[in-house]
Amino acid sequence: NDDKRYINRSRDNDLKQGMSLLQSMLYHSQEITTHYWLTPFLYFIHKHAQTVRGSVEEVERYYGFLCHLDNQLLGEVTSDPLVVRTRAFMNEPWRTAAALQFEAVLPCDYGVDFAHYWFYKLDFVLWHEQHRDHDAWGNFRFTAKNSVEHISPQNPQTTDTNKVTSAWLNRFGNLALVSRSINSEYSNLPYNEKRQRFLNKRALEKRPDSLKMDLIYSNDEWGDARAAEHQAAMQAAMQRHYQRRFAVE
Length: 249
Hints:
Blueprint: H1 14-29, H2 38-48, H3 56-74, H4 82-91, H5 102-105, H6 116-130, E1 147-150, H7 166-169, E2 175-178, H8 180-186, H9 191-205, H10 211-216, H11 224-243
Antiparallel strand pairs: 1-2
Helix pairs in contact: 1-3, 1-6, 2-3, 2-4, 6-11
């Protein structure tokens, strides 16, 4: 109708904040040349633009579809190219994957070879599920991160009593995604010192850099048992998110 209408990306309620965070997560976690999720997302908005106007239901529908698209498009186990799968979601927007990657990926010990997407994705999942339960999570923002950090370092100091064995060193429970400068700063510091630096930065900025790390550094001690507990909890949170139904009729 030649009128100007916009999706409000303000953060004055959970739906709008979630919508903004999810787009930010996808932006940071994907290669700049492969933001194929934008095409089915914009096409979905276009198809529904005349049926839902400027209401809570509008944001809920678009946010729900983007959650679904992220889960099923980027989480699918398939040999089909991403661009081909993207086209399939334009034809059938609420299609579901036969198998999902996270169930096979997260238990592995890939170390620094873990795809950065899984760390970004997990932080969004944690925010979506638990942000009301944690101080300062409401202020969380996604920022550019490009380095996988070992919570218990690869070459720990002899005085560090909070460390994991080789069995847990490179597993998801002992890893986090940080900026390269933070990785260099933390280096092989003992757990307690890393923890204090993280908490100091959190207090100064009034938000955590990483929700995964915020949960890790809520522990006074660290080792195989804590890493295993953390990994199991993260996998369970991811499982719940993939099982949610996001369709809005």
